[in-house]
Amino acid sequence: MGYLGSRFSSVLPTYDPAPNPFKLLASVNQKQWMFFLIAFFAWTWDAFDFFTVSLTVSDLATQFHKTNADITWGITLVLMFRSVGAITFGIASDRYGRKWPFVINNLLFIVLELGTGFTQTYQQFLAVRALFGIAMGGLYGNVAATALEDAPEAARGILSGMMQQGYAFGYLLATVFSRGLVNTTSHGWRPLFWFGACPPILLIVFRLMLPETDAYIERVAMRAELDSVGKVFITEGKVAMKKHWLLLIYMVLLMAGFNFMSHGSQDLYPTMLTNQYNFSANKVTVTQVVANLGAMLGGTTVGYSSQIFGRRFCIIAMCVLGGSLLYPYTYVSNTGVIAAAFFEQFCVQGAWGVIPIHLMELSPPAFRTFVVGTSYQLGNLVSSASSTIEATIGEQFPLAPKISGSKVTKRYQYGKVICIFLGCVFAYNLLLTFLGPENRGRSMRVFDDDDIEDVKGHHHAVMEGNLEEVPTNRIRKNGAVELVENV
Q1: H-helix or E-strand containing 484?
Q2: Angle of helix 2-11 relative to helix 414-435, nearest 10 degrees?
Q3: Fewest C-beta atoms under 10 Å: which of 170, 300, 401, 414?
Q4: What is the C-alpha to C-alpha distance for residues 74 and 52, in angstroms, rounded to an integer?
């Protein structure tokens, strides 16, 4: 009861002094900016590659002689298999560093995005997208850690919001390039996927030019001081699971709600505009571009605000405001919907702007990449059928078909389903955020890790065959960490 009671007082805005955002950005040094930029651009292209399917649903359905609902299984499979990539690449990134798992991730992007562009059957399409989901799932935890774990504490909120909006920026780029590359050549939708395979080459080169983060280097120094790096890594995993299992479950549930919110508001939205409201391709492009500008503004603004008012308060505020905008977002049938789309995505991605740093601050430090990435992608797994659910239910509410010559296009009330679906999702996220914890301002450095004492005690108990814990002093020296035992 004490914890529940504290949820009311702890969620109230803290009204911390509002720092000048430009001074915050100026406090980030050159190496930290390079880490941020590689993370931002990688996350941007991750989103681009994901939305290539969302923006070509109708073309893919025509190509493979399937319904729109059938094609959305290509989206669902990506979301489902992303958790496999998050676990695999998350463990690799926490054990072996951020650089090489990132490089391997992007090599897979190149191969599988090209492969999608060459698929000839529906079964091939689904198989390649499933494999693509594994590669895609390994990126988020890696880039969040790369961008934020070395950043100045005061600048984390605004950097979190900016990094997360790589997702919206990728969606915007996908919208623009799909207009320029889809159905403008004899290859139909395929050039969009072929083009998507190119920028990861530049990302690989960029990442190879950068070192590991200071936080990871310190972690390796600590592990080597205790014993072999691999043994201590395993011990850290045991301690993290024993102490933080309930928190990990909470983070997965929270990310399920957030992924329902983003995919439920975006994946089927272009289809709603074209199918239900008869928007032309140009009108859809304009609407999506404006919506994503709102998303980028919202993520950056709310991420920055979370450093002043608190992480949970800002998320809850966005859920309330986003819920109030659902009717115009889904029921306005003319170009006036563009304004609703701007503000709705401001709220959706505003809440998301808090998430990278919120998850980083909640995560066990030794497994930051694994926990952030896996909680995010397991949430994606839970929400993986969101677009299929909306498309399938929407087809239960048919409208008069659109007849153009001999071609008859079935139409459905997708807007009604999206509105009701998102209303439930906003309420869920609001409640779960209200009930959850917050660790705003938590140090990312290894010598401030509360789990180190338990790791050392467990490690010595195993080595000595008893449960006696050896006390440890932590000393900062020459940019690394030395652990000195008191005998």
Answers
A1: strand 480-485
A2: 110
A3: 401
A4: 11
Name the token pair of 50.
């994901």
CB neighbours of residue 298 within 10 Å: 29
Average predicted confidence (pLDDT) for the chain = 86
Per-residue model confidence (pLDDT) at position 267: 80
Task: Tell me if 443 sits within 8 A of 368, measured CB to CB.
Answer: no
Q: Residue 417: how many CB atoms within 10 A of its CB? A: 23
**What's the CA gap between 36 and 455, in Å, rounded?**
30
Distances (CA, A) of 320 to 191, 325, 425, 440: 40, 9, 11, 22
Cα 398–Cα 404–Cα 406 angle in degrees, nearest 5: 100
292-331 residue pLDDT tens:
899 999 999 999 999 999 999 999 999 999 999 999 999 9
Query: How would you classify residue 465: left for phi > 0, otherwise alpha for psi between -120 and 50, otherwise beta?
Result: left
Residues in contact with 187: Cβ distance below 8 Å, sequence separation at least 6, in sequence order: none
- Using an 8 Å Cβ cutoff, are 388 and 69 in contact? yes
What's the predicted TM-score (pTM) here?
Answer: 0.82
What pLDDT digit, counting tens, does each position of 195-245 carry?
Answer: 999 999 999 999 999 999 998 998 888 888 877 778 888 887 888 888 888
| Strand, coil or helix: 481 | strand
